[in-house]
Design brief:
This protein is an alpha/beta fold. The chain has 16 helices and 15 strands. Strands 1, 2, 3, 6, 13, 14 and 15 form a seven-stranded mixed sheet that branches. A four-stranded mixed sheet has the order 8-11-7-12. It has a two-stranded antiparallel sheet with strand order 4-5. Helix 2 crosses helix 11, helix 12 packs across helix 13 and helix 15 packs antiparallel against helix 16.
Amino acid sequence: MYKIKVVSILVLSFFLLSFSATAKPIVIWHQKEQAAKFIKQELEHLADRMGFEVQVTYMPTNDLKSALIKSIIQKIPPDIVLAPADFISYRQQLALSKINLEEFDIGDISKQSWQTVSSHNKIYGIPLIVGNNLLFYYNKKYVTSPATTWQEIQHQNINFKKIMVNPIGWNYREVYYFLPFLSAFDALPIKNNTPIFNNKNMKAAMTFYKALSTSGMINLNCDYDCSFKKFIQGKYVYSINGDWAYSELKKALGDNLGLTKLPSIQGKPMKSYMSSISWIFPKNSLQGHHSEHIKSIVTLSLSENFQYQLYKQFNLTPAIQKVQDKIKQSEKSDYALILQLLQHSVVIAPEPALSAVWLSLQKGFDYFLSANVNPDKVVKIMQKSALRELQYINIQK
């Protein structure tokens, strides 16, 4: 009897060791470079406590998208991905799991944040951090009351020229910075999952934007690094930049840094677009054998402590409302204003047409800024390109 028990224990031990050696880790990909070490350590500690393994890999956003699509084709996708919410526009190609919130233990995430991961009343991701919205920064050394309209900036520029400073700079040729101008002209190029370029509002927005460079208001060849550097050197009075730039700008300018809402155009407000960095689950991984462990990873990342550390260590805006409120109450900074401006930002639903619209807008935008071409011609080209691209995307479903 004793020998039988010993043999049984040995067999069981061998089985458990074999299972442990062959069990596949949960594969996690993400694109948050500044928080890469923190994310890896926290998830590995969780896995150790709960008795499973994780393999955490950081990739730049563009590499992440191409690697993810390739992994689906090769049938070796990761289990869970932390990515920009616009990845959800590829949900059919990526076979993303639909989210049943009753299966997760998470706190209060704002309706606006859920909109970044939702389409047709279905949820395809869980926001971890939110923001990515554009802000209007200014140097208090030159202005104590910032301009609220573009007409006012033009008027102020008369005095700026006298003291040899330029009025404003931003990454002018990057299409993301063009989007708030579209909002002021009611020219959002997507509606009901359909591209909409060929209209008078789009043409008016493009004409206004191009005039800012042809009039000398802005240097169209001063890119992100150039405009960022000139602003902190005091060579630009105003700057349009993202919430991601606040910490570095504050460090450089100190009490001279001011921020406010974007200036209006002809009485119409400019509204930035916002998004989220969210957990998504390729190849229906939420329905797979790692499901419970994946849920525990998400639950940890949305805990108050994890969310607060994302802000405290990396100045990232947490998705959980309770943590946002805690920060507003405890921090003496511009954070309350940044959150207020975020709440007035616009969400674009992650529809399949979004990727088609984005590609066509970038191509047409570059063409219009670089050539002496009529906007009528450009919007027709963009409309045709977007419809063709959307047709291709639909074929790939």
